[in-house]
Amino acid sequence: MSTTLSQTKIAFVGAGSMAEAIIRGLIETKVAAPQNIYVMNRSDQDRLAFLRSEYGLQATSDPLTKETFLRVADVVVLCMKPKDVENAFAELQPLLNEQQLLVSVIAGLSIAKTEALLQTNMPIVRTMPNTSSTIGLGATGMSFSSKVNATFKQVATQMFEAVGTVTIVEEEKLEILTGVSGSGPAYVYYFMEAMIKAGIEGGLSAEDAHQLTLQTVLGAAHMVQLTQENPAELRRKVTSPNGATQASIEALDRFQFSEAISQAVFRSAERAKEMGEQIAAPSPVVKSS
Ligand SMILES: NC(=O)C1=CN([C@@H]2O[C@H](COP(=O)(O)OP(=O)(O)OC[C@H]3O[C@@H](n4cnc5c(N)ncnc54)[C@H](O)[C@@H]3O)[C@@H](O)[C@H]2O)C=CC1
Ligand SMILES: O=C(O)[C@@H]1CCC=N1
């Protein structure tokens, strides 16, 4: 296999939002060629037709074509929901081979359980991307199984760097990373929803409240990035002694803002682990005597 992705054949099992986010990044950055990208789902033909026409890739839900896609792929990306893992893996198991790289984006599903469910020794990269990958600003956490060699590490890193940043962590940290960056976009949107609502309640037009909130979040994120100052220090600069911001931060503290975010991050991590654990364990192999 080539060490750049231009010749690499990548098969996505699952054709939902996460698969599309990664595919869009790979194609727009020209890291991978559309004709080398294969996508498959269970049955939604409209979705496959859309992906074909939008990206020029190959897409199917036909079992025989799926089989062909999976046999020729260098990299297989698992992009189904945790609840669909059992059925999808039963179909996949006989079609994968140990020369391929398996990349999983499934929240909470450990490498050991993936190996056990698929009864495989193939190299596995477990990842936790986020939806900002759609616009190339994703934050992906990644762990490698012991069977992933340097070339495959490069391939996986390159794939996700096409859609944002990559942070390599020990596998046991992927759940807390899910709490921070996997679910994280939702906290920011929720925060924005609340800010827009309060602005409207206070008398701003919906349009102004939206635009002011958006620019405020964009500006604050860029400030952290460009000044490289600590968020706490940047907050201090906004907060004039005994001023409006000090009063508002005190209001946030009265409602335990920091504790609420902390609880959200830990609960996401816990739920990711639960979802992984709820995927049925493989049944033990019974050896005939
Ligand atoms: N949405 C997010 O923010 C993030 C999601 N993830 C993970 O990504 C995975 C996919 O999530 P989404 O794309 O949001 O879900 P989605 O519901 O948009 O897409 C799932 C896709 O899997 C397909 N599928 C289901 N069973 C299948 C089978 N047996 N064979 C082939 N395809 C099958 C469905 O047809 C659908 O196209 C999940 O495991 C989730 O934990 C990870 C990081 C962030
Ligand atoms: O909510 C979920 O389960 C997935 C994992 C992180 C973001 N979405």
TrEMBL record:
Domain Pyrroline-5-carboxylate reductase catalytic N-terminal: 9-108
Pfam family, one: F420_oxidored
Record localization: Cytoplasm
Keywords: Amino-acid biosynthesis, Cytoplasm, NADP, Oxidoreductase, Proline biosynthesis
Highest taxon of the lineage: Bacteria
EC number: 1.5.1.2
Metabolic or biological pathway: Amino-acid biosynthesis; L-proline biosynthesis; L-proline from L-glutamate 5-semialdehyde: step 1/1
Reaction(s) this enzyme catalyzes, per UniProt: L-proline + NAD(+) = (S)-1-pyrroline-5-carboxylate + NADH + 2 H(+); L-proline + NADP(+) = (S)-1-pyrroline-5-carboxylate + NADPH + 2 H(+)
Residue span(s) of domain Pyrroline-5-carboxylate reductase dimerisation: 171-275
Gene Ontology MF annotations: pyrroline-5-carboxylate reductase activity
Chief place of localization: cytoplasm
InterPro entries referenced in this protein's UniProt entry, alphabetically: 6-PGluconate_DH-like_C_sf, NAD(P)-bd_dom_sf, P5C_Rdtase_cat_N, P5CR_dimer, Pyrroline-COOH_reductase
Family listed: Belongs to the pyrroline-5-carboxylate reductase family.
Protein function: Catalyzes the reduction of 1-pyrroline-5-carboxylate (PCA) to L-proline.
HAMAP family noted in UniProt: P5C_reductase (MF_01925)
NCBIfam families: proC
Protein name per UniProt: Pyrroline-5-carboxylate reductase
UniProt source species: Paenibacillus phytorum
